[in-house]
Amino acid sequence: MLLPKTKLLPHYDGKPTWENGIGYLVDSRGVRLPGFNSILKATQSPLQKAQITRWREKVGFAEANRITKASKERGPVIHELSKNYLLNEPFSCPDSIKPYWDNLLPILENIHDIRLIEGNLFHYYLGYAGRVDCVASYLGIPCVIEFKTAERLKPLYDEPLQLAAYCGAVNRQYGLRLNNTLLITTTSLEASVTWFERDEVIKYWDLWKQRVADFWKDNNVSGVAAS
Q: What is the pairing mode between strands 22-26 and 15-19?
């Protein structure tokens, strides 16, 4: 792994906090904004909520809880390994994660010109926050990148929306003009990359802006500032 050729973007301080079931990110000035996942959950349609319920019933509640727990445990490990690798820092992969890591590594070798790793994002104009996995170039094209782990590859759900939300926030926060996003999913058997061109990113960006607007319609706007 070569050292990054481009200068890293500055990191913004962010402190997670919760109130009334909504997760916020508080910046260094004490301004808090709701996180991507909280907005997503609060603006789910009845159909989306029903789909989640049906999935839990189909696989069984115990199995659904196991899958969710395993994903939450794998995710931080893969993110830390990816961060250390991309920044050319030492790392050690646990045996339980090694199949996932071995499938992910060949994809990481195509990521260069690292600009940001695990950076807090604040879109003050629209009113949301998040934490992006990576801003870099994939096969020479600058983009916003998200890493996911799964027990098996499956159809996309809210990932394109998340990528568009983070792309918009990165562009706003840093004055960039990124047009592309990339989803990397790794399982113990295989890994996949899903590339989103500009038109797709714009489509999901428009959908995301509506979700944020719907969220603020149903929540007290005066709650943006932290107490």
A: antiparallel
